[in-house]
Amino acid sequence: MTDAPRAATRRRRTKETAIDVALTLDGTGSVDVETGIPFFDHMLSQLGRHGGLDLMLKASGDLHVDAHHTVEDVGIVLGEALAQALGDKAGIRRFASIALPLDEALVEVALDISGRPYLAYDVSFGPDVAPLGSPSFDPQLAEEFWRAFVTASGITLHIRLVTGKNTHHVLEASFKGVARCVRDALRVEGGDVPSTKGTLGNAEGA
Questions:
Q1: Domain residue spans in the chain?
Q2: How far apart are the first and last CA of the chain?
């Protein structure tokens, strides 16, 4: 392992979105996020601050269509930045879990920086749940964000709602829970890759 900062910059340009990300893993929680979706900005800010990440993220997308493309593509680019910043993952704790409360909401999160992308998302909302903010954020889009994030970063992530009624509280608890797990799992404790195979990739039983 070197003493080089664990940091990355990523850029994505499509006909639907334009996204720039600068990420430092061993940061102070300094966040500068603009996606054009205020509630999503709020959630990403929780991810940065509570994850101890320095995060600069600028995104513009076809919000006149809906927010789906922007949310999903932000997940892709942020996941790519995390994977790049992690490098060979030498010395990291790798695993983390938490049960995080926010008022009446309680969300359980478990995370493995495994190199094998998998999302288990058990957070459901009623069919009549109202979107949040303006331009609006459909709560169902949180799952699309996390799926894109884990696929691009190569992590295994479980998010489960234990209890909760307020949509804002439930989503914020999930983002904060993932943030705290990321902060814990990224912590460097040694010099070896935390796997019996000596590498963290797509192989079973790493």
A1: 7-185
A2: 19
Superfamily of domain 7-185: Imidazole glycerol phosphate dehydratase; domain 1 (3.30.230.40)
DSSP string for residues in 34-76:
E-S-HHHHHHHHHHHHHTT-EEEEEEEE-TTT-SHHHHHHHHH
pLDDT tens digits, 67-114? 999 999 999 999 999 999 999 999 999 999 999 999 999 999 999 999
Q: Say how far residue 86 (Cα) sits from the centre of its chain.
A: 14
Bridge partners, residue 160, by sequence: 108, 122
**Neighbouring residues of 201: CB distance < 8 A, sequence distance ≥ 6:** 115, 116, 154
What is the model's pTM? 0.91
